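User: I want to check something. If I give you two sequences, will you return the structure for each one separately, not as a complex?

Assistant: Yes, each is folded on its own. Here is the first sequence with its structure:
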Amino acid sequence: MTNGDGQPGRSRGWQGAVLKMLGADDYQFTVTGTERISEHYIRIGFTGGGLLTARPLHPTMWVRMWFSDRAGKLHQRGYTLVDADPAADTFFIEFAIHDGSAARWAQQAAPGDTIAATFMGSKFALPEPAPKGWILVGDTASLPAINSLLDAGVATAHVFLEYQHDDDTDLPLRSREADVVHWVRRGEGIVDTLRANKFDADGHFGWVAADTKITRSAVRVLRSDFGIDRGSIKSQAYWMANAKPS
């Protein structure tokens, strides 16, 4: 494949203009290797072009990467850094494969390929004092971020994960012995499953990242059924169901 989807100099439209106006920093990532975790999941290694020497690492740290659609128009997509090594400025990014420009790029990526990325908006610090426990709600797209929280040694977590393919449940979730994990097939009601497993979550922290509708609904359930106040919930809609592929 050719190098440099989204390299500086190519038009990024209004998204790129707004990010630049807000002080976003641009980097060029270089592929170091690829690994097919499953039929629908790819892990790609990168060098960061100075990203981790300029930015302190934090759990759920993410970047925006630029991909060309079939018409040549650039789109940005957010991805979490996995197993980052700040000293070496290296990390992995995991791609849940579906129809879209990012998935097509990931499936063709090879060592030496480059891609433009932008850092803007990734802000998260583990709450202090440490919560009694965590309730994590997401899907395969947010699995890397959930793993980064579990790797950070957060207290016991109740994890609710939506999946689409049978082999998704074999993906490397880094749960610990005390964690409680619920895998819920897409369309079978992850929010209903969350509500059915409610408990007194006083002193817990809620973290939600899924499609827009699920994220909003899950936050409401965490507040109304689990009793977690708004200040103890971090949420971000990763994507919108039924969005037109790029």
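And separately, the second sequence with its own structure:
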Amino acid sequence: MKNGILLALLAYATYAWSDAAIKALGGSMSVFQIGFFQLTIAGSLLVLLTRPEGNGWRDFWRMNHPLPVQARAIIGLVAGVIGVYAFTTIPLAEVYALAFLSPLFVTILSMVFLKEQIGPWRWAAVIVGFLGVLVVVRPGFRVLELGHGAALMMAVLSAASIILQRSLAARERTTTILGYLILYAVLFNGVATAATGFKVPQWNEAAILLVTGAGAAAGHMFLMRAIRMAPVNQLAPTHYSQIAWAVLLGAVLFGEKPDVWSLAGLAVIAFSGLLIVARERIRLGTVRWNPFGRTRL
């Protein structure tokens, strides 16, 4: 179990560095081109390294329930595009603050669509999480940008994607669900890049693009390996290590130094998620909350 927790921490650290690399490319190329290269690199690595034994390439693309698989892919595509926009336009810590609303939106959507019973602890966590985001973003006290709206929409779409994946988990291969998301995202970003103008990356930009794609792929594989080694309810708290990475990388790489209010709000957001984890550990020793947060490859 200890190794699984360490792998989960490594996975979220790798994701954070991948997100920081996306931010570093902001302004040098379009969000579509960043998304295209990231997903092409990450998708190629994942398809080659994670295809289960015994599954042929034709099996990889076969769907038992085409409509929800396609819906999940399209939602993930949109979440990915606007996520890149958010990371390239507003501070890392603020993107994460809004993105961490995703598990709270999952709580609400699971009640509406999956008919799950939501107790007072989880409702308290939802309210506390929203209050934490308000402390970080402070609407009415500062100018909000389109990036804030993009990050919020990313959280909503990521939650919807998680709900769809839950409903498909026992009926479709994970590789099939992931494969269609990658296919749609690569095709859309490729066409959008061609339409808006392709820029040949410089050597330093190519290296950063490699970090974005390889980091996303490595983070996914580390996390999947961690889930096989430790219970989900033990791994869930490690997700909040990304908040520390966001503050650290934002300050060191981009000169983004959050004030006391932002740090306090981030702590409140982490507490709200941990409140859900603690409650679900008590309740029959199971966890129904997805530890992945926002949509990932």
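Because they were folded independently, the notes below concern the second chain alone. Residues 286-292 have pLDDT under 50 and may be disordered. The chain has 13 helices and no strands.
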